[in-house]
């Protein structure tokens, strides 16, 4: 039997389909649908949240229940919106002729993931725009507050607690505003970057409180310690709430990516008529 000899470096020609591997129109369509559905579900979630919370004591859900419910709702919202976007991206893509079945499955999965990625980036931009405006307004307001005698700050409530008198009618309000602003600046500076008032600052604050309220030095120091403890507790509570929110959001993003990729394989399989009977063969 004769053996056909081929020149070195010459291989069999492999014909690749001329259709692009990514249908960007389908990806963008799925991303837009996912973003729109996310906005609808966010509005619904806000309404449900307002309906279960209450400012009255012993009414509405507890803070822990509300935080867990919010996190679970984020996950459900991500699953629904991402699955719809991924399904559309897989169902609306072009049909690839002459492509192996396992390559088609990979491309469908990639379409779902890309739709989720585009929707996530667009959603982040849409959310960042109002946040940026809010921060700009806050910065402008803070600049105006420096020169205003009626300026308020995050520590003014604690300063009011420190300067509260048992007999308000006897209070001399000649320099009350200056004292409050001084205490607010002092507390804000001490609690910056997780620190707390030093011994010298505590002593100075106690002297201010004693001078303004008429309390004894011991009572003033006790009030200062109580308020500082309350500030630390509030800051720690805010930190934990932000940490839990970040964890829930990260988990929802991962689940959303998986849901989009899985739904895209279903949409692509239905598009090609191979869903439920796909075989990994060449």
Structure commentary:
The model is unreliable at 134-151 (pLDDT under 50). Helix 1 packs antiparallel against helix 2. This protein is mostly helical and 282 residues long. The chain is built from 7 helices and no strands. It has 2 domains: 24-140 and 245-272, no CATH class; 156-235, no CATH class. The relative contact order is 0.15.
| Rg, nearest Å | 31 Å
Give start-end ranges of low-pLDDT stretches: 134-151
Individual helix count: 7
Relative strand content? under 5%
The computed structural class is: mainly alpha
SSE arrangement, N to C: HHHHHHH
> What is the number of E strands?
0
The number of domains: 2
Binned, the helix content reads: 55-70%
Main beta sheet: none
Mean pLDDT: 77
Task: Please give a handful of descriptors for the protein shown.
mainly alpha; 2 domains; 282 residues
List the helices and strands and how they pair.
Blueprint: H1 24-52, H2 63-91, H3 101-146, H4 156-162, H5 176-190, H6 199-213, H7 217-272
Question: What's this model, at a glance?
Answer:
The protein has 282 residues and is mainly alpha-helical. It has helices spanning 24-52, 63-91, 101-146, 156-162, 176-190, 199-213, 217-272.
């Amino acid at each position: 039997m004769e053996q056909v000899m081929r020149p070195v470096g010459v291989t069999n020609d492999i014909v690749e389909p001329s259709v692009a591997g990514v249908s960007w129109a389908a990806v963008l369509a799925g991303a837009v649908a996912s973003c729109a559905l996310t906005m609808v579900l966010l509005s619904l979630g806000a309404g449900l949240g307002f309906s279960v919370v209450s400012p009255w004591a012993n009414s509405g859900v507890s803070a822990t229940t509300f935080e867990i419910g919010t996190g679970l709702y984020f996950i459900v919202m991500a699953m629904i919106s991402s699955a719809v976007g991924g399904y559309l991206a897989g169902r609306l893509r072009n049909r690839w002729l002459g492509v192996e079945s396992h390559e088609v499955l990979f491309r469908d999965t990639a379409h779902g993931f890309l739709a989720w990625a585009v929707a996530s980036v667009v959603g982040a931009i849409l959310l960042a725009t109002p946040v940026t405006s809010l921060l700009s307004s806050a910065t402008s307001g803070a600049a105006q507050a420096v020169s205003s005698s009626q300026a308020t700050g995050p520590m003014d409530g604690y300063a009011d607690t420190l300067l509260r008198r048992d007999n308000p009618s006897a209070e001399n309000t000649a320099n009350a505003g200056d004292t409050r602003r001084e205490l607010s600046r002092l507390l804000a500076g001490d609690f910056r970057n997780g620190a707390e008032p030093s011994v010298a600052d505590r002593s100075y604050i106690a002297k201010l409180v004693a001078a303004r309220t008429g309390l004894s030095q011991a009572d003033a120091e006790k009030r200062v310690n109580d308020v500082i403890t309350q500030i630390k507790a509030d800051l720690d509570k805010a930190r934990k709430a932000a940490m839990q929110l970040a964890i829930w959001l990260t988990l929802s993003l991962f689940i959303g990516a998986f849901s989009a990729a899985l739904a895209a394989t279903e949409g692509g399989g239905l598009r090609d008529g191979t869903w439920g009977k796909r075989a990994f063969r060449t």
